[in-house]
User: What shape does this take?
Amino acid sequence: MKDFIIPDRDFGTPAAKSKQMVTLNIDGFDVTVPEGTSIMRAAAEIGISVPKLCATDSVDAFGSCRLCLVEIEGRNGTPASCTTPVAPGLKVHTQNSKLKQLRRGVMELYISDHPLDCLTCSANGDCELQDMAGAVGLRDVRYEAIETHFKPKNNSGIANPNYIPRDDSNPYFSYDPQKCIVCSRCVRACEEVQGTFALTIEGRGFDSRVSFGMKSDNALASDCVSCGACVQACPTATLQEKSVIEIGTPERSVITTCAYCGVGCSFKAEMRGDELVRMVPYKHGKANRGHSCVKGRFAYGYASHKDRILNPMIRDSINDPWQEVSWAEAMEFAANRMKGIIAKHGRHSVGVITSSRCTNEETYLVQKLTRGVFMNNNTDTCARVCHSPTGYGLGQTFGTSAGTQDFDSVEETDVVIVIGANPTDGHPVFASRLKKRLRKGAKLIVVDPRRTDMVDSPHIRAAHHLALTPGTNVAVVTALAHVIVTEGLFNEAFIRERCDWDEFQDYAESVSQPQHSPEAVQMLTGVKAEEVRAAARLYAMGGNGAIYYGLGVTEHSQGSTTVIGIANLAMLTGNIGRPGVGVNPLRGQNNVQGSCDMGSFPHELPGYRHVKNDNVREIFESLWGVKIDNEPGLRIPNMLDAAVEGTFKGLYCQGEDILQSDPDTKHVSAGLAAMDCVIVHDLFLNETANYAHVFFPGSTFLEKEGTFTNAERRINRVRKVMAPRNGYADWEVTQMFAQAMGANWAYTHPSQIMDEIALTTPSFAGVNYAMLEEKGSVQWPCNEKVPDGTPLMHVEGFVRGKGKFINTEYVATDERTGPRFPLLLTTGRILSQYNVGAQTRRTENVVWHDQDVLEIHPHDADNRGIKDGAFVRLASRSGETTLRAKVSDRVNPGVVYTTFHHPDTQANVITTDYSDWATNCPEYKVTAVQVSPSNGPSEWQEEYSAMASRSRRIAAAE
Amino acid sequence: MSHDGPHAKLIYMANQIAKFMESKPHAEGVAGLSSHINDFWEPRMRRHLFEVLDAGGQGLRPLVLDAAPSIRRPAEAA
Ligand code: SF4
Ligand code: SF4
Ligand code: SF4
Ligand code: FES
Assistant: This one.
């Protein structure tokens, strides 16, 4: 009955890390394990499962249930095997008549205070209490408890004060205290695995209860972030997924990868038939090690949301309602239009946008479509708007466009700098792993205009928070380097060995100039010079130093310069090329890394090789039988400019919503409106689709085979758990379209696409589906030289040879505050929502974030007569919008902050068209604005929403 | 940025690159700027840039002018 699914083996306590091995004897068998291992785990290693309730291997042992007792020869009593460490030569017995009797007694007590409704219980078949009752041979319960926690009324009909009704406030799981055995696994999971400390055990003895913080709090109102770690840890039905309550237990599972963020957590999709019952983070997933966040675990409901479009649609003009048509008709219509445009305006008048949400294989095909079928290099991806400076900056300095470490590396870090990233919201599972390390003593430096949760949260406090003025990253990073160089804290041996010494001297001379000192820039950056000096010393001298950064670094007019500055810091201090150090971009979307790797940018073919290189083009030309342009193609902003100019007419846009994600919404809409054929390939009628002529319905990650590459360069498999509801996986749709355009593609499985990638791209040469099946995942580069992949980059030397120091001069953005727009707006994201929110808005996650709000400092709010919760008008020189204010001292005076998850907010109506000098990554993080009281939506919002609902009409079938 | 003139945005972008390259030794800056534009600017943008340069390069920072000879002129419209 309980073999419905092969569960991951639970060893009872976490693995010990010691290199010292210890041999002991358990039930007559010798076993050798690392020092510090519990007897319970040692027994489990040789297949002996000691009965247990309060122990599980995701959290440290606690020793409260007393079910796991054993006898040790020569020692008194019956110690708990979960809390007793092994010792050389021990002789342990896990089963004898005394232990049996003791265990039955323990179980009897538990069961006497537990409702016996096993048959109708949602955990039936998946309950450890039930299993243990069986395991210890409990056959009867000799006494009836007078006082219980589970009877609503006592025997004389009086309400039982110990009975607490079920808490259903969280949309995804319920908490039913009557079934709780107070094993505290949930509390420990919340502390140790997630690091939120939302749960506590209140009271003592019989009165002790699990509680979400304060007495009055329910699960939803508490600090709980709904990661589900407690639910997973709970051995009973007390904390249980609502989907299991509704559907029943799963019967099979498929291992796949989360499609939300760049952490790339591995999951077991647990199924009953083709219904998804629940997502459980996969214990052997190397990015997440059995943990997840609310999005990956729970927010998959969008896949079956009623808004999802399942049939292809076409229309002549964007003012017409949509017409549902067959796939064949849609392909013919789209191909005819595109061919017509090419015939009339030339092959450079069309292009594609690849998606950071789709698989590597799908992205590869989309860029192949433009390079090999449209015959131009007009391909770009939304990574442009987030991490293109990473590619440029790390490429210039180190020689690869990717992070240097794996996530495991954080476990060996001593000093962490987090710059312009909000990992608890943006990269939650990484944040949990980071916090775990911080609680063990690593030091933290946060560089962010806003007081993020990393700065100050339960059991975590940043040693330094450099709360800089938005737009001054380069000044701060260069000042850190100034201190390291002028105070002689740099690692000369490393620099001499790994970098060009002459280049370093030039750099050192430039960075030592007094205008780069913390004192000189303090007026500009708003950060006290002593703080900068202290932070620099800590990073340089504190042991293994690692830098993690996010969009707060890249989305600036000097984004690439800051990335270069960060790389300089790591080289200066020798923090590159071993565990615990490195430079790590925290990627936004699930496959940003992959979409960049796969040649989505207009100037480079897969594997970051420039189109100007004849030998690289040659590889693809001979395979595809075409001639590839040797000139870079159009980037997204260029496509839009060219469209307005009248030279760019047709676009195939897969899985991106450029109207919502790209800056300066009005410019984007003007560009789209000027095109003759916009093909949108997506799950929903997104904002861009308002300007589309063809809509190809997309498939979700649950419905296709493929791979995603996460922020650690890890190639993870995505596996199909159900048939595509729209009929075809996205790669099939792109292929059908290419065929309609005349291509002779004939892939029958994404593994063939990966084989082509491996054939053409040296860093993927060793990758294929069979090896991913065997190894689970692999980090590129993976080829003959490194058949197992590359967890750490630049170990022996930099990929480009010598590491390159490059001067970073602070250039103020031209986006400045002035009398009309005196405040600086910076943007960010929130845990429960994902990027433009197209998926998460279509799940229950909206209970945590039903609208975007504007954070404003009490001082600025007071000046303007703005009350917490009031509607305010937010205006920049680009446009204006309205949203609600939240008065908060998380931001400094002069700075306001918002998220951009909801289309009604149209935050990008506000942002300007300033962009990074090297990559044109838009400057989302700094906009001069004014905020004033308002009483409702702006004109643009109203116009836009009328226009949007007009253009989403679908004609009734005749 | 100011939106006067058809190529204002382009001039702005070229100058932005120049400002970064100006922090390098002159020769390296010139080489860096021209190869950056050659590598990343598609022919249409470079064509526009040459329209500005051929008309005297007004509004462009000196480094852009210095780098101009090594910027690749795009082939005539394909
Ligand atoms: S869901 Fe996560 S945050 Fe919430 S109580 Fe459970 S472990 Fe803690
Ligand atoms: S809720 Fe579950 S995990 Fe938490 S103490 Fe109760 S039984 Fe244990
Ligand atoms: S959203 Fe990111 S952190 Fe959350 S489960 Fe998915 S991959 Fe993991
Ligand atoms: S499992 Fe060891 S005391 Fe509970």
About this structure: Helices of chain B lie at 8-21, 26-40, 43-54, 62-67. Residues 34 and 69 of chain B are 8 Å apart (CA to CA). The pocket of iron/sulfur cluster (ligand 1) is lined by residues A 189-190, 194, 196, 198-199, 224-230 (CB under 6 Å). Chain B touches chain A through 23 residues (CB under 8 Å).
